[in-house]
Write a structure and sequence with these properties.
Blueprint lengths: L3 H4 L8 H18 L10 E9 L8 H14 L4 E4 L14 E8 L1 H15 L20 E5 L19 E7 L4 H10 L11
Antiparallel strand pairs: 1-3, 1-5, 2-3, 4-5
Amino acid sequence: MSDTATTQSPTTPAPRLKAQYDDEIRAALKEQLGLDNVMQVPRLEKIVINMGVGAAVGQPSLLEGAVKDLTRIAGQKPVITKARQSIANFKLREGNAIGTKVTLRGARMWEFLDRLISLAIPRVRDFRGLNPRAFDGRGNYTFGVNDQLIFPEVDYDSIDAPRGMDITIVTTAKTDAEGKALLDAFGFPFKREGQE
């Protein structure tokens, strides 16, 4: 028996949603959008999660809690964002730490999207669907959640304050219609037309 089988490291399987995109969704979108080449089919580029903590100006410990929560949710350490300009009304000075953000790519991005669609969004209280018109004109979609507790990774007893966050899904789509078709194919829960 050769020794090569034992020395090679096992390859990790592709995330479930990525495998589904490669096997089914890409070909279906090519047909649906009437594209000539499979390389023109829109795909995910990155997901950016942004958590603003304006109260951290007066209470820096809130920022530590936000970093801890976002690390648990995203699976990687976020960067701390700082104020670009001073605003006297908000007692804000340039350079103050006011939030935290993380950019997900590759396998972490696919796994986060899978958890977002199948676990987190269904846990939103009184959920009636996401706004289908929240695209930016170039196929990227941004929406906000009011509470980090919709993510099962966050322990209710360990949080110091409820925090919302903005989630931006960046795609290679050239139009909003292409971006919406891509997210629809993943089963994104958009509001239906005529639904309030």
